């Protein structure tokens, strides 16, 4: 399966380098390049890629706003790739529905792996931001959303198990193995969980599981 990608990056040299890395992979296809947020949204709506690789600081429309538009339109998964790991960017991108957040200082293999992970429905976070998300963002948010626990209560027992696994950082394949079910069934459960909880990405689901203390028994 070929993964179709739109690369949104305002710096031409950086964009060219990223595109070169991606085009070296046989299963990745760059179908569009955008130099600003407005163009990123336009190309996503037009081309319907599997993944939009999105910078944060861009002219005309910032990456967080562009992410929100792409995700709301169902025009592809968004993987944020930026130089900055400031809280406002991390939280803003994930609230907007980004499926992942990576920093530009990563190795090429890690970028490629991140795109593949997001394309298959898994989340991807830079290690440097994961602990901060849990300690300073996820837990306080529970008090701001008193309906969150009630919404989780509407999940089936199996869906709660899947949600707990998502919160533990497991991929769809790992969830399928742990719960002894087909990976396609796992993907269906994840989609239903996101719909029932009105979440935009599995990263948001993982944060919710963490803040509500929904944990795996293993």
UniProtKB/TrEMBL annotation:
GO MF annotation, one: DNA binding
Biological process according to GO: phosphorelay signal transduction system; regulation of DNA-templated transcription
Residues modified to 4-aspartylphosphate: 55
Keyword Repeat: no
Keyword Transcription: yes
InterPro entries: CheY-like_superfamily, NreC/VraR/RcsB-like_REC, Sig_transdc_resp-reg_C-effctor, Sig_transdc_resp-reg_receiver, Tscrpt_reg_LuxR_C, WalR-like
Annotated ranges, domain Response regulatory: 4-119
Protein keywords: DNA-binding, Phosphoprotein, Transcription, Transcription regulation
HTH luxR-type domain location: 148-213
CDD domains in UniProt: LuxR_C_like, REC_NarL-like
Pfam family, one: Response_reg
The protein's name in its UniProt record: Response regulator transcription factor
Lineage: Bacteria, Bacillati, Actinomycetota, Actinomycetes, Kitasatosporales
């Amino acid at each position: 399966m070929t993964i179709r990608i739109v690369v949104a990056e305002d710096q031409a040299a950086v964009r060219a380098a990223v595109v070169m890395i991606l085009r070296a992979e046989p299963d990745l296809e760059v179908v569009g390049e955008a130099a600003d947020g407005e163009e990123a949204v336009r190309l996503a709506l037009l081309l319907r890629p599997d993944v939009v690789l999105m910078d944060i600081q861009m002219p005309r429309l910032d990456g967080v706003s562009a992410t929100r538009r792409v995700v709301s339109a169902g025009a592809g998964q968004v993987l944020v790739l930026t130089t900055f790991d400031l809280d406002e960017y991390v939280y803003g991108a994930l609230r907007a529905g980004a499926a992942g957040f990576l920093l530009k200082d990563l190795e090429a293999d890690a970028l490629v792996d991140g795109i593949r992970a997001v394309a298959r429905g898994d989340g991807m976070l830079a290690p440097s931001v994961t602990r901060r998300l849990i300690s300073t963002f996820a837990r306080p948010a529970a008090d701001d959303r008193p309906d969150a626990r009630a919404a989780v209560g509407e999940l089936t027992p199996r869906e709660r198990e899947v949600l707990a696994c998502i919160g533990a950082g497991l991929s769809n394949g790992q969830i399928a193995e742990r719960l002894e079910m087909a990976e396609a069934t796992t993907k269906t459960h994840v989609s239903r969980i996101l719909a029932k909880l009105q979440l935009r990405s599995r990263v948001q689901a993982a944060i919710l599981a963490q803040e509500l203390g929904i944990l795996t028994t293993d």
